[in-house]
Design a protein that fits this description.
Residues about 15-20 have low confidence and may be disordered. The strands form two sheets. Strands 1, 2, 3, 5, 6, 7, 8 and 10 form an eight-stranded antiparallel beta sheet that branches. Helices cover about 20% and strands about 30% of the residues. By secondary structure, the protein is an alpha+beta fold. It is built from three helices and ten strands, in the order H-E-E-H-E-E-E-E-E-E-E-E-H. Strand 6 and strand 7 form a beta hairpin. It is globular.
């Protein structure tokens, strides 16, 4: 009996491994969990602003007009709400700002926390004057944190919204349709900004992701499962026959 129980436990354990739930619903909006590489730096504070800032306000939903459940809320449904970013009021703590007086261009590498099929990126501007918003950007994805191998996801121009003639937030999202790829890491390369001030800014970033393609289950596992089930069945029959024989004798 004990051997059969251990066998069942082994079989269900194997089935559990090959049938794990996928990490995200199809077309879910996802926030990164961390920035793991930043070649630009962060705003360090002048004119009475905080002495130190970091990248977290760029992916913690601060400043957004509506929240979402990362990895669960449908990307399309959330975008249909027309969520905006508050922009100034204040900018510190509601998004990411480069160091004062630059550098204003460079690389930000995001960790998504798991492997996903990465499909789109939503970016909200933040600058109280639109000239500090990023302009030319390039996106890359990778399964490796060091981007030793990567996929080009696209080159884009982030619009200056609103224009210098109307520099008043809040800002809507701009959605960039990426070349789909399976990845855990996303590199945002900022090539230029609109250069009104010597800083560049991003309000919020999120991604449209789906579960990665299912990993094929090796045929050997199914052979093991079917063979094990047959062994259990024959064991039960043998046990029943022995019990009947004992009763007769």
């Amino acid at each position: 009996m004990t051997s059969r129980k251990n066998g069942w436990a082994c079989m269900f354990g194997l089935l559990g491994i090959v049938t794990l739930a996928q990490p995200a619903a199809t077309g879910a909006i996802l926030s990164p969990v961390a920035v793991i590489n930043n070649t630009i730096g962060n705003y360090s504070g002048i004119a009475g602003f905080p002495a130190k800032t970091d990248e977290k306000p760029m992916f913690n939903q601060s400043g957004l007009s509506a929240g979402f459940s990362s990895g669960a809320t449908a990307f399309a449904d959330y975008m249909n709400l027309n969520p905006t970013h508050i922009g100034a009021g204040p900018e510190i703590g509601n998004g990411w700002i480069s160091p004062a007086y630059c550098p204003c261009t460079g690389i930000l590498d995001f960790d998504l926390g798991a492997i996903y099929k990465v499909q789109k990126m939503a970016l909200w501007n933040m600058a109280s004057n639109s000239g500090a918003n990023v302009a030319s950007i390039s996106l890359f994805t990778s399964l490796e944190a060091d981007f030793s191998t990567s996929n080009k996801a696209g080159d884009f121009t982030n619009p200056e919204m609103p224009s210098d003639l109307d520099p008043t937030p809040p800002y809507p999202a701009t959605v960039f349709d990426l070349i789909d790829s399976e990845a855990r890491y996303v590199r945002l390369q900022i090539n230029s900004y609109y250069e009104a001030y010597l800083v560049s800014e991003i309000g919020e970033i999120a991604f449209d992701v789906a579960a990665p393609a299912a990993v094929p289950i090796p045929a050997g596992i199914w052979l093991f499962v079917s063979g094990f089930a047959g062994w259990v069945g024959s064991s039960k029959k043998a046990g029943l026959a022995a019990a009947v024989a004992r009763n007769i004798l």
